[in-house]
Amino acid sequence: MVVRVLALVGDCYGGRGGIARYNRDLFEALTVSGAEILVLPRLGDANGLALPPGIRQQPAIPGRLKFSLAALWTAWRARPVDVVFCGHAYMAPLAWLLARLFGAHYWLQAHGADIWRDRPDSERRAIEAADQVTTVSRATRRILLGRTNLAPERVRVLPNTVGDQFVPGPRSEALRARLGLGEGPILLTVGRLASGERYKGHEQIFAALPVLRAIFPRLVHVVAGDGDDRARLEARAAELAPAPGAVRFLGFVPDEELPQLYRLADLFVMPSSEEGFGIVYLEAAACGLRVVGGAGGGGGDAIPDARVGLIVDPLDQAALIDAIRRSLGQGRVDPAAIEPYRRPHFAAAGRLLLARVRGRPCRKRGEP
Question: What domains can you pick out in the chain, each with its CATH number?
Answer without folding.
Answer: 3-161+343-359 (3.40.50.2000), 173-339 (3.40.50.2000)
